[in-house]
Amino acid sequence: MRRRLVEGVADTHTATDPARNISPGELLPIGRRFRIVLVLGFLAALGPLTIDMYLPSLPTITADLHASAAAVQLTLTGTLAGLAFGQLLIGPLSDAVGRRLPLLAGIAVHVLASVLCVFAPNLTVLGTLRVLQGLGAAAAAVIAMAMVRDLFDGNAAARLFSRLVLVIGVAPILAPTVGGLVLGRTSWRGVFVVLAGAGVAIMVAAALVLPETLPRAARRNEGVRGTARDYGRLFTDRVYVGLVLVAGLAMAALFAYVSGSSYVFQDEYGLSEQQFALVFAGGAVGLIGATQFNVRLLRRWTPQRILGRSLLAGLGFGLVLLATAATGFGGLAGVLVPLWLVLTTVGLAMPNAPALALSRHGEAAGTAAALLGAVQFGVGAAAAPVVGMLGVGALAMAVVVFGGMLAATVVCFVVVRPHRLPVEPPEPAVALAH
Known about the structure:
By secondary structure, the protein is mainly α. The chain has helices spanning 30-52, 58-64, 69-97, 100-117, 123-151, 154-185, 189-209, 223-235, 238-268, 273-297, 303-327, 331-358, 365-390, 394-416. Helix 3 runs antiparallel to helix 4 and helix 5 packs antiparallel against helix 13.
């Protein structure tokens, strides 16, 4: 079925040689493939952009709306919850009606919610609108992943996820910096004006560049019962569920950093909003660099091996972070260095866990991507307020970061057992938009 796949690019799939295990997307012309990958990256970046751009303004929102730090952090939790729940709905919908229509409708919801956030009179309204923002961004996140699965398999998918994270990584680098600059010129409400503009630009790019990657013959029009059956089948796959949990727990470590970092570095260590943006960007550089190094590692090692080794390394760095945060050893550098190293290992795990998980269920890629994304952002949503409840200090952040890495490593080696998974040999000859 997938070898005659894509409406609008179907002609490129007729020459696929199954014996060479070339993914359909790799037969696209390099220029067109590059444009598709770039826009898919922008889609996947919409969620992180929505989350990260207003991080420097959290203390300002706390003061302006007369709320507690924990209450303001719940607006971040609301966004993550919207991202998680929205994917569970939109993933199966995209399996039934195709990818483009739910994608464009979801981004439109995000733009509308961003505009309304500008006029939010209190924290309750802002939190509600942040949930709607998350729901809209969920369409971009889950459909980007489903399109990757429509077009790519195995190592090729892992390479593409690495490339997508490169584009996604621009969001954590630029978003807090842009947020800090906006705060320097206007209030925190201006951040949502910028988010609305970014949503419009991404929607236009998606409409112009992305084809429909799910042909009518491959759509699953079985209604609620069929969706329930697909989810039930996914939950019976031990390895898939384990990989989804690994991805979610690694995301929990990442979002513990995201939710707690502005308070730790601005309140505890006295950094300005602009200095915090630079520190945050440093962590993003490590994350991005690791995802791109992953492309080179895939030429020598399998995704299974890289995933296991990166989690073990992340667990070790997380333990160092916990020790320095608890003792105060090394001051700011004592927290930053092991924290950045943990983020680097997360950058190695992030492309490989989803690629391995989605490779097991190509017949329901939207639903499989939805569950994966929902768990990632759902666990992240649960981790964010835990940091606030523990005290929003360096130690609280370190406890949750270490806990996420510990749980991810245990699930990987006890449930997934990566050393027992079928191995696809590395294929250095295949390039993806290098």
